[in-house]
Amino acid sequence: MASQPLPLDDLAHILAHTQAIFPALQDQRVFLTGGTGFFGHWLLESLLHANRELSLNACATVLTRNAEAFRTRAPHIANDPAITLLEGDVRTFAYPTEHHRFVIHAATDSGGQQAQRPAYELAESILEGTRHTLKFALQTKATRLLFTSTGAVYGRNITGLTHISEEYPGAPDPLALVSSYDEAKRMSEHLCVAYSDQTHLQCSIARCFAFVGPHLPLDAHFAIGNFIRDAIAGTPIHIKGDGTPLRSYLYMADLAIWLWTMLFTAPANRAFNVGSEEQHSIGSLAHLTAHTLRPGLRVQIDGTPKAGAPVSTYVPGTQRAKQELGLTQHISTEQALLRTAAWHGFTPA
C-alpha cells in the first residue's frame, strides 16, 4: 500500500529554514543510506521539494534492500527522475560509478529493535555498514558526510540530569548485551573521524534522540507513537511503568532542517545533539496526548513513583547546535501531536 506524501506545510517549513544552504546541492549528487526509513522519507521528500522550488538539478542515489517494495510504498519519491534506487545491503552494496559530493549515512535498525537478532549481528551490521559507506565516500571523492548516530552513546538510564550535553562523560556498558547498538554507534563515530583523517572527506555527526511525525510507526516500541495510536482509536492509554522517565520529541520537519544544516555547514569531526529540549515525563506525555487529541481519554499508569527514586533522563542539551549552527526547535510537542495525527487522517473533535 502506497504511503501518502508529507504535508506541503511541513515541506515549506523545511525549505523556509534551509533555502540559504540548499544551493550547495546545485548540479550535485547525494548518496543516502537508510533512504527508505523514517528519516529517509523526510530527507528525500524535502530534497525533492527543494529541487523543484529552487531548480537545483540535484540527484540522489538511494540505497535500498528492496527497490520494488519502495516503489510500491513511496512512488511519489521513487519515481521522481532525480532519484536513482540502488538495491543492496549497506555492508556490501556495489559502489556507483558516478561522483557523489555528499553522503548521508542514516541506515541502521533502531536500538529498540536489537532483541530481534543476536547482539553481535546488530553490532557487526552497524559497524560493517559504516565502514563500507566510508570507503565509498572516499572512493567517490565526497567532500562531506553526515552520520546519524544516537543519544544512546551516552549510556542508558541516566539520572541526576535534566538535559544531556555533548560533554557528558557517561558511556554504555561494553559488557552488557543490550549495549550492542549503543557501542556500535560509538565506534561508528570513531570510524568517521578515523577514515576522514588526512583526507578530503569532512564528517559531521548527529547524535539523534527521539522524534515524532508522519511515518513514525504507531505499533512499535516508540512510546509517543503508541500514545497517538491509542488516542486515534479512542482506547485508554496504558503505561505499565510509573510514568516518571523524562523524554522529549522533536518534530520531523525540524529534524530535517537540523540534518540538512549539519550536512552542509557543521564543522568536521564534531558531534551535535539533535532533538528537543522540551522535556516531559512519560506520564505527562500520555496526558498531553490525550488532552490534545481526544480530551477525556483515560490514561492508566500501573506503577507508583517512589519518593526520592532517581529519574531516568533521555533529553538532549542542544546549546552547541544553537550556538554554532543557529538551530532551534520551531514546532512544539503539542503541535507535533496534532500534525502527526492529521497525517493519519485524524482531527480532534
Task: Describe the protein.
There is one protein chain. The chain has 349 residues and is α/β, with parallel strands linked by helices. The chain has one domain: Rossmann fold, CATH 3.40.50. The protein is built from 11 helices and 14 strands. The chain has a 7-stranded parallel β-sheet with strand order 3-2-1-4-5-6-11, with helices on both faces. It has a 3-stranded mixed β-sheet with strand order 12-9-14. A two-stranded parallel ribbon has the order 7-10. It starts with 7 loop residues before the first helix and ends in a 6-residue tail after the last helix. The model has no long low-confidence stretch (mean pLDDT 96). One of its GO terms (cellular component) is cytoplasm. GO terms for molecular function: NAD+ binding; UDP-glucuronate decarboxylase activity. It comes from Granulicella pectinivorans.
Short summary of the structure?
Its cofactor is NAD(+). Helix 1 (8-16) packs across helix 2 and helix 7 (223-233) runs parallel beside helix 9. The protein has eleven helices and 14 strands.
Q: Which sequence of SSEs, written as H and E, runs from N to C?
A: HEHEHHEEHEHEEHEEEHEEHEEHH
Structurally, how many domains make up the residues? 1
Helix content: 25-40%
Q: Report how far apart the termini are.
A: 28 Å
What's the assembly state of these chains?
Answer: single chain
- Structural class computed from helices and strand pairing: alpha/beta
- What strand line-up does the widest sheet have? 3-2-1-4-5-6-11
GO cellular component, one term: cytoplasm
GO molecular function: NAD+ binding; UDP-glucuronate decarboxylase activity
Organism: Granulicella pectinivorans
Domain NAD-dependent epimerase/dehydratase: 30-275
